[in-house]
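Changelog-adjacent note: as of this version, every example in the card shows the full chain rather than a window. The one below runs 642 residues end to end.
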Amino acid sequence: MRQNRYGHMVHEYMVNRVRQIMQARAERLGAIQTQAEAQAYVLDIRSKVARCFPALPARTDLKAQSTGELDWGEFRLEKIVYESRPGFMVSANFYLPAKVEQELPCVLGLCGHAENGKAYAPYQFFAQGLARKGFAVLILDPVCQGERRQFYAEEGVSEQEPGPRSTVAHNMIGNRMSLTGDFVGSWFAWDAIRGLDYLLARPETDASRVGVSGCSGGGTQTTQVTALDPRITMAAPDCYITSWLSNLENELPADAEQNPPRALEFGLDEADLLLAYAPRPTLILAEENCYFDLRGAQQAFADLKKIHGLLGSPDSAEISVGDLDHGYHKHAREAMYRFFIKHAGLKAAWQEPEMEEIPEAQLNAAQGEVVKFGSKKIFAFTQARAQKMKAQRPRLDHKALMESVRRHLKIDIPETPPHFRYLRHSGGHIPAIGKGYQFAVETEPGIQVILTMFGDLENFCRRPVGSVSLYVGHLSSEEDCAELPWLQRRLVDGERILAADLRGTGQSFPTTCGSSEPLEPYGSDYMYASYGSMMGESYLGRRVYDLLRAIDFLEDGGATVNLIGRGVGSVPAVLAALLHRSRPACEIVNYLPSYELLIDRPLHNWPFSCLMENCLAAFDLPDLYAALGEQLQKREPWGAWL
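Full-length structure tokens:
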């Protein structure tokens, strides 16, 4: 049974780090007192936001198709398919009032994580409602929702199964994209921006009155597109806006597309994405019982109100709070109608009449599946990007490779040994060996690596001298020592093994997020890796740092260290073997053969915490294995599924 004596260690470390970032942001905002200072703040965050959405492509021919029409009396709709990138199809519905006599204000509709995307009733209703009130609306399916399924039999999904649910699918897609320096949020944003291109190219629409709205994941996209596209003139995100600190404190993981890389490094919060083009009219929609913390939404509104006011537009920021749970409820839709009607200069009633849900099949623009309609899968683009990187990858000598790895892991290696503690009343127990004893190595403030020593029990309260094996297990190093026969045989034969639980593993596996398994694609391990990315750091890099410091601790006491890594633990073991100045021998078992394997196998469960962002531009794991040469032993590789 895994012990979690340090189960909140990583969480409180991350919370403290993000609190410091948000405190610095609050101080910057608090110091703004003039219009010029507010303008400078807006320009600064606009440039920073753009850097959080890498790899946006050039515009190409939309190749838009109208595949059918429906007439529902008070409104009509066209079924649209367009290519946001060459060969990558987006399914959408274009809603219009029954009669169009002049250019119409228009709205881009963006969907949350409903599996049926644009056909989900509340999303249909807000599009219908806007059309009835005189707006043109384009609402589109997100990737892996509605008609945009991506996982099929060739990805390992049974013909009878739809594949992973949208949130899990987004993470699987986003995690592997990160290896190439891409960001899945850039894909969501680009689909929407190209949808806006289509919307504004229609003769019925007025480019001077352009809204965007969506709920939850659609609220995320609304916020991001608002930050990236100057053509938007009014925005109404629903049930999304809070603070990234609130989400972290409340143990709320978010999809990969909701966590822009480097956003926290740049000192941004969610409200800043809405401020990128302030004082653009903006309505924050929220609910009292939503899991996106209302306190964060209220603070975001206060931030908007201050900056809009200094920019001479005190009435262009609003907030509407309902008393229900997460969702685009009728009262929220009506608040959005009222806001858009006001800023579009229309004369229309904001109340929503009773509306009829249109069956999903009737809304299908690509006969139900864009892939079968002729679209490329998103995986093909990532594979092509990775292959191009591989072909252009430079040949690095050993020193250059070490430096490249260190930069990708974003770690500096200190010269002095770390502080440590003796943990008298702790330690695992292996029947054939007996009780172990433990050290806690303090690798940085708030973080401890737990080392459990087996095979040398007479030396309690003394660091081992001579040859020792530092073992980094798959999920829990101590459990591996107790359960794996080959490790137990080595202990019985006299090998001295220290089981190392790096941050977030074994004894410090987080007890947060309702997560019981490190490999959950939407659990705590993923959340902390995502926040590391947003802070411009590498969660894997911090684990490698932990291991480097553990080696320092042992060598400072007179030990000669050999590394053993298994499964998830094989990745930091190899990286530490490459980077540590003592060049320790390293053995890896059940290791990941290459990151390229994950590019080629979209359905996998190697966690985000094992990946290095943009590393494939410089190296892959086989390059590291080759560089270690005789220093490394490998056996029993694992595939894409652990």
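Structural remarks: The radius of gyration is 27 Å.
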